[in-house]
Amino acid sequence: YAFNIGSIDTFQQQLQEFNKDYGVRYSFKRQDNWGREVLQWVLFLGIMIAIWMFVMRRIGGGGGPGGQIFNIGKSRAQVFEGGKSTNVTFNDVAGLDEAKEELQEIVDFLKNPKKYTDLGAKIPKGALLVGPPGTGKTLLAKAVAGEAQVPFFSLSGSDFVEMFVGVGASRVRDLFKQAKEKAPSIIFIDEIDAIGRARGRSVSMGANDERENTLNQLLTEMDGFGTNTGVILIGATNRADVLDRALMRPGRFDRQIYVDMPDLKERMAIFQVHLKPLKLDTSVDVEFLAKQTPGFSGADIANICNEAALIAARKKKKTIDR
Hints:
single chain; 6 strands; alpha/beta
């Protein structure tokens, strides 16, 4: 006969009292269910491991087979090379003639470095594109890579920022290592002010330690460039006033190229680029549109052209008119 009991200690105490009253002899053997104990520990450890793997995948930006648990310190740059190119040249960049002229020298160096090194010239290690949002800084950087036909590493300054200490510096090292292996190449960091802000301005002590470590590693890597490595860094920002002075000095960002809002002539050229794929009515006057949009950036003009196409489609028109 078998039955379940609640507490073993309580049952033994009651059994001893019963034995005193009635003098019943008894014997028992205590057995533990080790299988159940082991199963409970296995389930507990399995759940903890599953939670840990899920958290690490989310932190590493994974989600595929195996996630990126061990790749958290790897560079997140998008690489354009070989068959996967930027497909952008200076012909696709309307206006910005002064900026294109300055960047053309970088393209010439990447294509013909011997012409410069034979004369003992030191090629600029970096160029900083400064200007308001939407003026074409990213497009210019892609055009440089497209003209030079070299590997192009593109990422944002926020891609270096992470909650774990040392991850940003590790990603900087990995980025420059990849770029040197595929030299000649171009590294483009958009919104570089995310990691390039001046050091020592934090109100709360230690709040910016990780960002400053990342910046220090970036400065070290830029100093480590040789004159013939063939790696050029292009940065873009609309907040050059907050950048660290060590980042702006000659030998790191040798060139500072200001990309301003387009003037009338440049706005006409930008309109012609964005209106080219659209079906236009003969009444559309590009010069009139350019005169009506002072202070508009290239991105604003592109949006105007797209909105015109959407409105024409909404009104069921065959062409886009005034």
